[in-house]
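Batch queue: ligand-bound targets. Current item pairs a single chain with zinc ion. No template structures supplied; prediction is de novo from sequence plus SMILES. Inputs echoed for audit trail.
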Amino acid sequence: MSINSKQSVKCPQCGQMSDVTVWNSITAADSPDLKKDLLEGRVNIFCCPSCSHRALMPTPMLYHDETEKLIISFSPTNDPVLKQQLFENVKKSASESGELEKLSGYNLRFVTDYNELLEKLLIFDNGLNDKAVEVIKLMILSQDIEKSEQRVCRFGKLENGSLEFMIHDTAENNIYTSSVPLESYNSVYESLIQSGMKPYSFDWEIVDPAYATRLVNGFNNHMF
Ligand SMILES: [Zn+2]
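Prediction returned. Tokens below.
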């Protein structure tokens, strides 16, 4: 069930008061329009009617897609310590409530960044698995290892048999794209599965570049 509330927000830029609809929970099946809005980055974004200032509302949101067997818990924060605490809380309450038993075959993701949330939705919407996608992103960034620290790679789209990635170089402040054939994705996915990667979750997971690094290193250690 999709759940929202109305909040009165004072614009941090110009001080104008306005009402914002804030979504705490989105179920894809009963609100396809809402899913579209979310994919376009318009959900829980405050946009001032007076000065057009835009900002993310600091509201946690749960996204549930039964068809794709995907649940994303989104808790906006930039603080890595708070992120870890919130993640531990989500795992703790899941194990205490026994909800994990009802969610077998599901992918359960915890994210704190709005762009990462949108990226996850796009990945699963295109029938891809984010664990394999994160490994491919590592491979793309490792092509220029000296600059990999200053670059952020995001999945953009799947088109004409290719995965397209956007790479933002935060130091040089430019964006370029990189394409990877779907066949390459498929062979990475297959080899990860053969190495023991599960295409679903046993618990809440953070699947990010650090996860992909552990995945690749773990499998390497295992193999040699
Ligand atoms: Zn304003």
